[in-house]
Task: structure prediction
Amino acid sequence: MRNGQELRSQIAGMAFYENMRAKLYWAVVSRTPSMLMAERADAGSPDMGLQSWAGDRILQKDATSAVRYLAEPEYRELNNLTVILLDVFSDQADLGKLTSMKEAEELFERQLALLSRPVLKHGGGISSEDAEAHAKAEYKKFDDRRKAENLGIELQAYLELKAAGKALPKAKKKK
Result:
């Protein structure tokens, strides 16, 4: 029985986290993470529409992370708002005024409203699964084009070396 309760609690916790995350994004860019990813993932855009990525080249995991599509000011605003709200949560929990996820969600929405932020009242316009599928499809197109461009660069370098080799004087054959 305890494992079933723990599993339900974990699922509820993950759903709460995803819901709060969507509300944070909405408060900053008026889009859920899924909507943001679906709108900004574009194989034809420079860097696929991404504003940041780990490492020196864009990978699929970058393309399927909504935070990677945020411009620097949006990212900074999201972080600042998160810190403010976590401080409020911590304070209220320390005072014993925050004892359930429902209370936390209500406090969260009140704080967003007090900060003159839009409050998400619906589930968004696109599922996370659909947004991820879109981002993966756009990444595949982007990556295929990138590979073709790299192959073209390598082929051009090879042809230039071959032409340069023909221009070299012929070696005399020893008798």
